[in-house]
Specification:
By secondary structure, the chain is an alpha/beta fold. It has helices at 18-28, 58-66, 85-93, 104-113, 127-137, 142-157, 177-193, 200-211, and strands spanning 7-11, 32-34, 38-39, 54-55, 70-76, 79-84, 97-101, 118-123, 164-167. Helix 1 (18-28) packs across helix 7 (177-193). The radius of gyration is 19 Å and the shape is globular. The model has no long low-confidence stretch (mean pLDDT 93). Bound molecules: guanosine-5'-monophosphate. Guanosine-5'-monophosphate is lined by residues 14, 37, 41, 72-74, 76-77, 81-83, 101-103, 106.
Amino acid sequence: MANRGRLFVISGPAGAGKTEIVKKLIERHPDVRLSVSCTTRAPRPGEVDGVNYHFVSEERFRQLVDEDAFYEWAHVHQNHYGTLKATVQKELGEGRDLILEIDVQGCLQVMAQDETVTGIFVCPPSRENLEQRLRHRGTETEESIRVRLNNVASEVAEAYKYHYVIIHQDWSDVPNALEIAAEEVYTIIAARRLERDMRRDFLDRLSASLKA
Ligand code: 5GP
């Protein structure tokens, strides 16, 4: 029987570049899947329903909560976000490794409920860099930048609970910072595929054949 896929949760402060890192990772390594979450927030320019998120109303979101359809969900920056159980079950059941790009509360919740989940925290190289990235994104209002920066200190304090930490360098210091970070995430995924438990069936067969 094929091995089940593994679940990876990736998080970090807004503006640390986790969305770009995951996008680059999927582009370079299509064997890794990214879960598409549901959200009640409005689409940003260029975002496509079903690709970036499933954009749903508050009413529909509440209905999904009542139906116990979410693997995890959270209230982030005045909106609701959630990962569908169906997505997780399908991808892992079909043997694919799946990444959830979710907020810190969601990651902690998932890591606490399943110890086989790998937690990856993406950090900016400095506070100054983070603030600059948020402003350059151009999609945030001053108020939302202020709210987001206020949350960063408490989010970074939770980084100690993750298995791995990626430092996303500034591209002006390290021109291929994005590629480096994406490959670092892939290295984590690749290493987990080589773990003893993923090799158990093979080892059993090899041992049996050597004894025959
Ligand atoms: P944004 O609105 O900038 O796309 O996302 C805001 C925050 O919500 C980010 O930290 C993002 O990782 C998080 N997020 C996106 N989808 C989910 C989800 O399904 N569950 C949780 N818990 N957080 C999510």
